[in-house]
């Protein structure tokens, strides 16, 4: 291992384990619950608008989604939704919070290769208790030196993490499925990013373009490609 320490940050949801598929399955059931009132497109559009309006108060995660779903249901039914239907929405939220943690293909093997040679961090946003639960149940916790569960992932957040953990931006690589949250802010600070797309992207996380960052941005098809990408990255920056 060289004297220069390279640090690799990992997003959690849809990078280490499946998450958006759980939300999509609940969306299907939510649409069905409101089908006699509105079409699916209206339900989706109203739910998303409600989530965005409440984001500052509720933050990311299942609890905020559930509260916004109840508010959306009341709005779209003009208050006609029954207590039993609200109970069903609450139960959907509980099911999401209790859902088993399912790792993405190749994650465990990739971390096993990288952990001995590099300092690894988890940097994820969402509900504190839920993210802690998922990391604990994932069996991956011992691979990471530090865990950061944050309310937002922007330049200010990453800069604060760099200061707290003594990380030089040029020695940092962030791995994640979201260009908006995992890649763009890190590139702006002078770090590097490895984008591993997930097959579903939440509308709020979509961006059209990635800033030019020659030698600092990598597009991967699978997390299994990461060790070779890290080897090339450390050779170039070392």
UniProtKB/TrEMBL annotation:
<dbReference type="InterPro" id="IPR023214">
    <property type="entry name" value="HAD_sf"/>
</dbReference>
<protein>
    <submittedName>
        <fullName>Haloacid dehalogenase</fullName>
    </submittedName>
</protein>
<dbReference type="GO" id="GO:0016787">
    <property type="term" value="F:hydrolase activity"/>
</dbReference>
<dbReference type="InterPro" id="IPR023198">
    <property type="entry name" value="PGP-like_dom2"/>
</dbReference>
<keyword id="KW-0378">Hydrolase</keyword>
<dbReference type="Pfam" id="PF00702">
    <property type="entry name" value="Hydrolase"/>
</dbReference>
<dbReference type="InterPro" id="IPR036412">
    <property type="entry name" value="HAD-like_sf"/>
</dbReference>
<dbReference type="InterPro" id="IPR051540">
    <property type="entry name" value="S-2-haloacid_dehalogenase"/>
</dbReference>
